Amino acid sequence: MKRFRRLRKNNIIRQMVQENRLDINELIYPLFVVDKASFKKEISSMPNVFQLGFKELLEECRECLKLGINKILLFGVLEDDKKDACGSDAYNENGLISRAIKAIKQEFKDDIYLIADLCFCEYTNHGHCGILDENGYLDNDKSLQISVKQALVMAQAGVDMIAPSSMLDGIIYTLRKALDENSYYNIPIMAYSTKFASAFYGPFREVAQSTPKQGDRKSYQMDVANSKEALLESLEDEKQGADILMVKPALAFLDVVKDISNHSKLPIAVYNVSGEYAMLKNAAKQNLIDYDRMLIEIMLSFKRAGASIIITYHAKELALILGAK
After folding, report:
1. GO molecular-function annotation terms (predicted)?
2. 248 is catalytic
3. How many domains does the chain have?
4. Catalytic residue status for 195
5. I need a surface site. Which of 52, 180, 195, 288 has the fewest CB within 10 A?
6. Does any domain span residue 16?
């Protein structure tokens, strides 16, 4: 009889043989900036997640550093009257995202590793991730052109990494080529290489004010039923020059994370999205779960599947939990 319990006898030996561990250095914390000097609004569907003005954005970054979190994924949230059909504020060197990047880098320099989400759904008046044609279909190649403009504005502002999330065909090759041609060789690209057209994004659209005005995103985001296509997308992004691959959402797609990690040597990130966060928060509010234990189990499931980077709204809580161990 094989006695597996020998290695479970007490906490010391259990920790010694533990296969996967959480580390604060693996966490990326998403933040949402609005074009106001001072502003803070909690999102009703996402407790402890806020839209932040510039003053509060810098305060939040400072608090993150105190907790040991030094990687931020930044989203811009634009007011409706500043949006247009092509999301031009996103590639304006004096636009919201450019000024926010500059503010963070001026205040914190290299203490904060700043990743910018590159997309247009928060900046267009129709809520889609690029330029629409006359039939309301996302024009892939025209959207690539403005994506290059946005990437270069972010690079000029001082961003450390770019994360294109629009799921455009050829986006990684196009951005890598443009960055290299403009001497931004050392800016990595974290590809949203497998981004599903998921119901788990609902609360995010409240915080980012990015709900499509008509239609949906199923013509460019991936079908949730497809795993082989997910692998193909990710391997193609690797071939085009991605430095990190990402699966979004995370929890319902761990099979995809495992499959990609088995076929790629690149680091794998998962985005623990708003719907996953909201479900756990609501379960805790109703005293249905042991919140801290369940949170750790979910994070470890990402690690077991092959992720080495976790983007999560739980980052500050995890920092406190991990620091207490």
Report:
1. porphobilinogen synthase activity
2. yes
3. 1
4. yes
5. 288
6. no
